[in-house]
Histone-lysine N-methyltransferase, H3 lysine-36 specific (Wickerhamiella sorbophila), 659 residues
Amino acid sequence: MVQLYLDVPSTLDKAAKTFEALRECTYATKSLGSSGQTEIMTCDCGKTAGSDEVMCGDNSDCINRLTSIECIGDRCGCSGDCGNRRFQRHQHAQVDVFGAGPKGFGVRALADIKADGFIYEYTGEVVDQARFLRRKRQYEQQGITHFYFMMLQKDEFIDATLKGSIARFCNHSCSPNAYIDKWVVGPKLRMGLFAKRDIAAGEEITFDYNVDRYGAAAQPCYCYEANCTGWLGGKTQTNGLALPPLVADALGLTIEEEEEWQSQFPKNQKRKDLDAELAESLPVKPLDVQDVSRLMAALMQQKAEPWLSRKLVDRIFVSQDQSVHIEVMRMHGYEIFASLLTLHNAEEKLAEKVLQTLACWPQMTRNKISSSKIEGVVKGIAESAEDSGVQEQARELLDAWSALQMAYRIPRRERDASKDAASETETTASVPDSPKPTPVSRNTQARLPPGWEQKTSSNRTVYYINAKTQETSDRVPDQRELKRLREVQRELEAEKEREAARQALLREEREKQAEILDKIIADAVAAEVINVEAESTPPSSVPTPGEDTPHGSKKPVSLQKRYTILLAKYVPKIVWRYEPQLGRDRCKRHAHDIVRLLVEKELKRENLEVPDELTDERKKKVRHFVVPYMEKALAHYLKKGKRVADGKPSDLTAKRQKA
């Protein structure tokens, strides 16, 4: 049964005198607390016309919120109405400090808090490993027994001993109602306390120290829960092999599966000392679409051990469902992978797994690739990776990306919520209005590059258009980015033109070669036909100039030659189609015979005019003569079962024989 502390007096004023309040963390050096993100990650949320729903809110599909990233500035479509800026706006839950008996101070809820609701940011002084060890010894010597160190990321800790927020007074419980989560807020990683379940007003807010908190010597636990371990504290509260809860959850492991994996190793074994083969024994399950956001959030924050990042990426890679890969891309996949490759640039096993996964993703445009800056990271791998296989993977990926083009987004229309509401058949219970976040001021007319104008559509959506090129964008155009994109576009168009010119030259060259070949074939056929005619015609039958032929008309030999040359330009083109079945020599003989027969027919005609080229109608008639002739010749050849000139039956011959 949940115990409530509504009647216990507040000790907030007394507790406030024991530390210096910090709204946000301070950093011993500028590099500490880095989120590893060099680019602002934007969401694609937009305001629905006529709707009071807060954008990027609890029930939204905001990709930033789902991956534990806060929206920043005015780059996101949500702008000032965004509900995903709780750390920046210090939108803490209503809480109070009270006396918690042997535990000292405690924190209680003054109002109901929904599950996953933001309770309070854990602030303090962010220090490195050396300062952490030095301060830890100093506090132990001073007799400080309460735990105020929280690990932010590898070799970085939040020290809330002397400076921090009232979140430092949250006590431990073996069955907590809250949890610690890390969020990317611009260039920094920040830590907050969130509700693990619905928390009632008056209930003490607790979380599990054995997960994230560091302090002095072990001491008794006073949570009084049924599953209480009795002790907390020591050098570190985490099992040497225990996976970070966020990673274990992202890998989809149950407690039993994690314990079974840990049982393979000697006691007191630490994760960082694991043998590579044993580390690979950690099971990997295919990913479901609904689990993508948790996994991507874990990848954002997993910086300590490359093999754990590789396991997380491997879960994406083994997933056969294409919708999983599409969702990973939507959840800032390119940006997160670029960050991983940059952070672990010497870890080629991780690079290989990331490259293999990137190659699985559907690729339509260069937009996400360009905005994530991942192309430059992959180029570095292609140039400097020691493993030739990894280099080749990187080059193949770059080649595939180079074929993609940029696409300009058309401004999205706002959906009319009043129309959607009309189609709803269910009624919803009224709920009290929640306080709206203070809007962030922004310029209504942004500075635009030359040629660009700001417009408002009929549904009051602001968009930007280039009056000259008619390019449109739903975001403020950046002059340098637009210049770079246009240069890329011009280069792509120039390359297309160069390729078209090369293809035109190749076609022209092929046509010339074909013309030369046709002329050679025609001349050869004509010469052989004329020679055959000359040899087969008795001298007495060869008409002399001015002498009548047996048919009563004057047909000089030169006319016969002209007809032969004319038909020899066209007939062989039809005959050569049968070369795979009949062979070159046999086709050549048939071409000679057909030309000779057609010349004889032409010489019998009354009209002695020989055209320079055959008309389409004459070509059609010639074709009607040649095709049946060759089909009969082929049938005769197949019936006799002869082979082609090279001594092997062709594929087409074999197919015809089977038929």
About this structure: The chain is about 40% helix and 10% strand. The longest strand covers residues 178-185.
